[in-house]
């Protein structure tokens, strides 16, 4: 049995899990359509890895109706295992053997005939830019190479659903971007990706839908745009060095909040070109010039902190024009 077009790749109803007296998942619902990227966000310890472990059959839920790839997790975990790939904090890479040997071991585990195993391994090593390193022990690989090898190994069995548990944690920006490219490629091949991440920008960049896990429940779920609409706070900020120009602008513009000490003005805005133009027109008409203009649109950081009650002060400036 395989997933049909209308059937979700992953569906959870009332997923519940406690460790001893501590409830980590209080009955959550998740639906992931096939061929999409679903991102589970949450503060450290929220239970993201627990969700991945349950959905990938590594541990069992206390309660809930769960299906992955059209297979019921409770009654048919073997079929689920055959449909999925998992990479993450529990990496399968063996550092003592070479990248190629790791790949061939995986091909053996999937009972691929020898020639096919070699062909598949070679193709994936090539695709993940590991040909040069293939004959070296995996322990000598950089963090990014190791993650690439881990994903390549996961793909040996041709899974249609992949769980990536914090795939870019600890990677430098270049390796992170290369991993994003890999994830996009997987999705364009029709693979469903279930991604946990602590980087909101990553979810924003890759995910079709995002769920924020907090206090044992889903605090919010939607597209990045839908989530951003949950928090107000878009504005244009004008900064001045000349107090006279600041005063003139404060008088010319309506609905501004003033910060007299910083000589800066804050105008509510949806960040659209139209609104930006009208503010610039007002300033022109008043004959004042701001020294700095920044546009702030709420980003996922704002959503995340608003929903999870964090106290962090994320960088709020998404676009700057001087
Ligand atoms: N085997 C276990 N026994 C007891 N408690 C556990 C066990 N595994 C996880 N926990 C606890 O359950 C909670 C959720 O853990 P989990 O690893 O799923 O969180 P997470 O959201 O993935 O966090 P992180 O981003 O830190 O990996 C944490 O408080 C953790 O300490």
TrEMBL record:
Swiss-Prot/TrEMBL keywords: Antibiotic resistance, ATP-binding, Nucleotide-binding, Transport
Name by which UniProt lists this protein: ATP-binding cassette domain-containing protein
Domain ABC transporter residues, every copy: 10-240
Lipid bilayer topology: Peripheral membrane protein
InterPro entries per the UniProt record, alphabetical: AAA+_ATPase (IPR003593), ABC_transporter-like_ATP-bd (IPR003439), ABC_transporter-like_CS (IPR017871), ABC_transporter_ATP-binding (IPR050763), P-loop_NTPase (IPR027417)
PANTHER family per the UniProt record, alphabetical: ABC TRANSPORTER ATP-BINDING PROTEIN, DOXORUBICIN RESISTANCE ATP-BINDING PROTEIN DRRA
A molecular-function term among this protein's GO annotations: ATP binding
Cell compartments where the protein resides: Cell membrane
Top-level taxonomic group: Bacteria
Entry annotated with the keyword Nucleotide-binding: yes
Species per Swiss-Prot/TrEMBL record: Streptomyces chisholmiae
Listed Pfam families: ABC_tran (PF00005)
């Amino acid at each position: 049995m395989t997933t049909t077009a209308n059937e979700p790749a992953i569906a959870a109803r009332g997923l519940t899990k406690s460790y001893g007296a501590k409830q980590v998942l209080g009955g959550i619902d998740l639906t992931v359509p096939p061929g999409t990227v679903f991102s589970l966000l949450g503060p450290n310890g929220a239970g993201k890895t627990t969700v991945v472990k349950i959905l990938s059959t590594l541990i069992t839920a206390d309660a809930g109706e769960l299906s992955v790839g059209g297979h019921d997790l409770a009654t048919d975990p073997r079929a689920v295992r055959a449909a999925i790939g998992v990479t993450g904090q529990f990496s399968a890479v063996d550092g003592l053997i070479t990248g190629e040997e790791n790949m061939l071991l995986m091909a053996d585990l999937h009972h691929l005939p020898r020639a096919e195993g070699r062909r598949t391994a070679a193709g994936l090593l090539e695709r993940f830019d590991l040909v040069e390193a293939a004959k070296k022990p995996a322990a000598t690989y950089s963090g990014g190479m190791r993650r690439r090898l881990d994903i390549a190994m996961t793909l040996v069995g041709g899974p249609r659903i992949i769980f990536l548990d914090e795939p870019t944690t600890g990677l430098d920006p270049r390796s992170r971007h290369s991993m994003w490219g890999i994830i996009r490629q997987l999705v364009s091949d029709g693979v469903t990706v279930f991604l946990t991440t602590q980087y909101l920008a990553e979810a924003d960049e890759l995910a079709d839908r995002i769920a924020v896990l907090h206090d044992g429940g889903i605090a919010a779920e939607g597209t990045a745009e839908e989530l951003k609409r949950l928090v107000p706070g878009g504005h244009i900020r004008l900064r001045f060095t000349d107090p006279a120009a600041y005063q003139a602008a404060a008088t010319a513009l309506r609905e501004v909040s003033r910060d007299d000490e910083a000589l800066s003005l804050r105008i509510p805005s949806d960040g659209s070109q139209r609104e930006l133009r009208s503010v610039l027109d007002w300033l022109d008409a008043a004959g004042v010039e701001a020294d700095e203009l920044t546009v702030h649109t709420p980003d996922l950081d704002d959503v995340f902190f608003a929903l999870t009650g964090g106290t962090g002060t994320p960088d709020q400036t998404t676009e700057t024009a001087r």
